[in-house]
UniProtKB/TrEMBL annotation:
Basic and acidic residues compositional bias, start-end: 684-704
Function: Component of the Mediator complex, a coactivator involved in the regulated transcription of nearly all RNA polymerase II-dependent genes. Mediator functions as a bridge to convey information from gene-specific regulatory proteins to the basal RNA polymerase II transcription machinery. Mediator is recruited to promoters by direct interactions with regulatory proteins and serves as a scaffold for the assembly of a functional preinitiation complex with RNA polymerase II and the general transcription factors.
Entries under InterPro entries matching the protein: Med14_N (IPR055122), Mediator_Med14 (IPR013947)
Name used for this protein in its record: Mediator of RNA polymerase II transcription subunit 14
Subunit structure: Component of the Mediator complex.
Pfam assignment, any one: Med14
Keyword annotations of the record: Activator, Nucleus, Transcription, Transcription regulation
Lineage summary: Eukaryota, Fungi, Dikarya, Basidiomycota, Agaricomycotina
Annotated localization: Nucleus
One of the GO biological process terms: regulation of transcription by RNA polymerase II
Family indicated by similarity: Belongs to the Mediator complex subunit 14 family.
Amino acid sequence: MDMDIKPIIPARNGLSSSKDALVNGTIKMEPGLEPTLEELERELPDVPDDQIQLGDLLSRVVQSIYAELSELSETMPNMSDTARKRVLADWVVKMKKQVVKLYAVAKWSRDADTIQKCMNITAFLLTQSQQFEDVVGALRVAKDSLDPARLRNHDLLTSLDVLTTGSYLRLPSCIKKLTIPETPLTDTEVDKTFLDIEETIRFRLRMSEIIPIEMSEFRIGNGRAHFTVLDLFKTSLCLLGGAKDDGWFMVDVEFLINVGGDLTGLQEFPRKPPNIMKQHITDEANARLAFYLTLPDAPPLPPEAPPRPQLSEGVIDTPLIRIFNFLQMMSLSYQLEILCYQAQRMRSLGWANFLSVEMSPDRKTLKATYWLRPPVPQLPGRPKFKIPLNGGTLTISIVEKRSPIRDSKEPDRTPRQRVLSRIQQRAKLGDSKPSDEVEGLQFAVRWEAASGAFGVFVNPEEVTLPQGALQVNANNLDFESMLRMVIQRHAQAILRSFKNQLQHTSNKTFSPAGAVSLIIDEKTHALRVHLCGDEVVIITLDTRTGKLNMRDTGDLAAAGRAPRLAVYSDKINENPTWLMEALIRLRLTTITDFAEQKASYLGLRSYRRRNIPPNEAMKLGPDARSTLFIQLANFPDHYLVIVITDENFKYALITTKAIEDNTYAMMVLEDIAWLDFDRIREADPDETSKDTPRSMRKTLDGRTESGNTGFDLDNRGLREIYNYCCARVAFINVERQFKLRKINFTHVNPSNPIPSVELAHIQSSLARSVPALCVKSEDILSGAPAAEAAMPNIRVIPLNWWSHEKARVVTCVKLKYVQQPMGKRGMGGAVIRPSKRIVYDTREAIVSFLSEDVNSCVDEFLEEWARVSKMVVIAREVAQMSKLHQWHDVRLLSFDLQTVEFAYAQDYTVSISCEDQLSSTGGNFDLYFSRMESGDAMETDISFNSLNPHEEAEPFLRHILRHGHGKLSQSLHRLVKLLRETLPIVVELEEIRRDGNENGRNLDIFAKSAGWYRLLYGDLKHALDFRLMNDQRISVLDASHSLFGSRNLDPNAMRIDADIDNLVLQPIPQVKEIVAAAVKDALSAGILSSGKTAAMEVGIISDAVGIRALTKVIHAQVLERLKPQT
């Protein structure tokens, strides 16, 4: 049926319309009173879920674009042009995507109102549906609550009594019992009752009741019979009455058990059952006791109920046997449940993935399977192996054990118990038979180890426990201890099988005695496998997980080896038959680690493998199992290769060459030289002088062997063979340089030590067996400056090829004549070291040039020789200047082959050094200016100013020597002359600078060339130029005027825009008057002599004396003229 469901809109002004009509459940209104569409939409709920304003989205996108653009504007200027283009292109693409998405969203937003209205209608319909469901639920609850609210049945008998007699004829017995209490028994009556019932119990037990032999231990007291069955239960029974046919009932019971192991949850297993459980046990026990008992007060059974059991003829009821069988089963089941609980708790404490616990449906068998492992997926191409998915099972079950006598239904008893049972039965029953038989229940514990676990087959005797070792102890119920006993025995058997397998295979790697040993104690079950040297791997079998784990205890035990051992452990656990292969690989890896560790201790760079094609690697021999490439630090293309075979180390020196146009940078072996390790070690006098002969040393295998076989490698041995390789390559490189320059060389006896005492300590024991090189000075110094100063023979000796430092070469030159070093750096004793690369022995006149790069040692020597020779020339020329030019204050202060320091005037000094003398530009000279403190100044308290004003012009002054390359003596004379002539200028300017700093004037004094200095005033528009002219004349000019005339220039071209005019120097106001007044005052005072000073319109020209007198006066007047402008 279609129904038109619309919201009911209340009438206007809160009044319902009388004209409304209800038709088919729908309110029909007059046309004028129907709600409008806007009113209906207002009734809909507003659902703003997942809706945002388009304006907010647009604002966020624009702000994000602006922020990223601002960030790019700050970071892109520091990028290269290519990086800027790439970043900008990526940003444009990214922003374009964002704008396109925003455009699509803007298109979709046209339908936002329609979508919003649909969501509101959907929410309204969902609310209406929920209301209908709530009404249905409320009606259902009302129905369910009204059913019990019915009147109780009428009491028809009482109603008939009241109708016939007018009153009640009877009252309920419960009212009588509540109102009339029974008379309690006295203590005497209670004691008498107890004595009577105890006598009856004693009589019944001795004369007629069949008592199971297992329950024969009892006592009678407190009106009950207390029975105790060892390790099972303790119970008390009482009779219903004193008659012969009265039955028994149970009073209480206690199970004789003690929970061991983890006592968590002990409260869950009380010895005495709590109230509810006790009531259930009591009801069941009483039912079994009264199984054949006739109950006179029992209600009649319904017709469909089966009749009560009846005893057959000649059968006597034996209730005590039934109660024993029941409580025995209850006790054993209780113990089995406790063991199951303990097993389940072990699973929750970390055993869940490795232990499964199952209980049979009849709750009589507990089965625990340990060392569970997931099935390994068999990949195509991999060998298949079948290994059990568990380690074994431990089964605990409740079984009935009969007597071993054939056709006997009695339980398993001792002969004495069987005799007593038969006597009791014959005495109390005669020829009759008992209604029940005793059930001999007990625990049966069975351990079954999985055959082929871990891929090894163990001896059956090793997975068998002694008789009685594995049983359930009621006084200490501990499933964990039972399981651990089984697992430990199984783990020992498996590890022992692994040990036999490692020692008795075709591979004799682990066959020696002591190579594999078994470690067994209370907490550990492991195999100790000796790999090499002090390296031992421990293989443990985790008793919880059943997994093999490998760990090491040697010197290399570090965090880096743990992941590797973990990988080996995982592979072994996947396929335990791979253990032998894993240990062989681990041994090989350990030996490689040992060699790599030695190289690392010595600071050598080593590689396990290089990009060498397989056919090239075969050149190292077919017996190579692994290799270690040790790169020579100073010779990257050469390697010392340690080849690891099954029995020993082999050593080779290889030369590699990269294959051109190869994507993977493959290398080929250009040369292979096999090294005799024994011969190299015998060349070491320290090694051969040891007391212990090498033939009896302990090898890396941990065994004492004769001869130098095995993996005998210590730090010293590796260092010696590495040094030998470095020496071999170093000499080859030096000789190659001589051959390229066609310089003849010869080998000399290496027995003589290094000539320089300073370098004598950096020697190797192998240096005596490595020859040195000797060249002629006329060959190697051909074309070099001051070549005649060297003796004929020059000795070249490579150094540091025996150490971790970079290999170097020392070139020793004996000098014929030279200016003796002097000064504080040249008077260090018999041996001086002016620089890191030069050592000079003053007694032997031997200069040792130390080169840092073997491949360029000849070039470095020639460069150092050029530097030293130039310093020698400068020192010689300075020493002769005082006599040659009558410059008496020019004197040599210090000379150490690298630096020459001398005083060029008064106490003003300069220090000269040079570098890059073999470059095409002629090399560079470094000048350092300072002042020398006199002895008189040191005795006063006045502070000494060591600043030399010539330091400002050092970049210009150095070019005088540089441009004089080839004519160094002339350039040096020119430099000294220029320094002496410009000294008055710089001294006066330095005093002006100092005075300006003290008075807070902003003055800038700087050099524009070697003989041109400028004094720039604080307004940066006016300046004075001080220039050195010919014949020791000095000019002081207004810097705004050029020395070159401008009379021929076009006047129109001299017009300068007013804006540009502010950017150039301006003429000093009244400079002509200032100069004229200064000269006039100096002449009148007698400071100047006529004819040596000339005043001009823009300055003055004078000698050094005139400049000293006029500079300060002109400077002061210029400051006065510039004050109004500043």
